[in-house]
Write a structure and sequence with these properties.
By secondary structure, the chain is of the alpha/beta class. It has helices at 22-35, 73-78, 97-107, 129-135, 190-195; strands spanning 10-16, 40-45, 55-57, 63-65, 67-69, 85-88, 111-117, 138-141, 144-145, 152-153, 155-158, 174-177. Helix content is 22%, strand content 25%. Strands 5-2-6-7-1-8 form a six-stranded parallel beta sheet, with helices on both faces. Strands 3-4 form a two-stranded antiparallel sheet. A two-stranded antiparallel ribbon has the order 9-10. The structure holds adenosine-5'-diphosphate and zinc ion (ZN).
Length: 199
Amino acid sequence: MDIFNTHTGWIEVVCGPMFSGKSEELIRRLRRAMIARKRVQVFKPAIDNRYSDDEIVSHGDIRMKSETVASAKGILEKLDWRTQVVGVDEAAFMGVELIGIAQQLADSGKQVIIAGLDTDYLGRPFPPMPDLLALAELITKTLAICVCCGNPAKHTQRLIKSDDLIVVGTSGLYEARCRRCFEPGVPKQEYLDFARPRM
Ligand code: ADP
Ligand code: ZN
């Protein structure tokens, strides 16, 4: 961001539910850094190969070349230390090591831009995002549009039955929902109707 001079590192976090434009916002910021002739590297976790192995791809099909890492430690292994701006997509799938690594990169003068889900399919804070939000200089929450009612959506509704924390998928497996329309866990389970009567 323009408020910082080039000798200072910092952390920016972009977080929100699926379909809220995190990847598009990450790509927009990284493109601006490239226009400013900064050296940029972009990383994404290997688990997210929904559309491409070597690109970040938004749901609106906006793309940017990226490097794939098995976990956050891979960022340090693949990092060219001349890089000035480090982008990370799908940070919620990177593991808790990302917290220390983001700090290390920012302490060494780099601009670190991290995008990821802030909550999981049950609406719980999704590690390592809470720590990253606390440590960041700049944070942005993006909202999607609730597919049920059209209001701003902060939740990622899982549409299939699974108790796994990470089930990688896109439309058909997940949809964006607002606080009111969100049904944690498996939709239409009777215990949910019992526990959370609809207004
Ligand atoms: P994220 O990285 O947060 O999953 P993306 O940047 O990949 O989001 O995609 C955002 C794009 O998804 C939007 O610009 C829009 O074209 C599309 N989109 C599809 N469904 C929705 C929705 N329910 N709300 C908002 N945008 C949506
Ligand atoms: Zn809604």
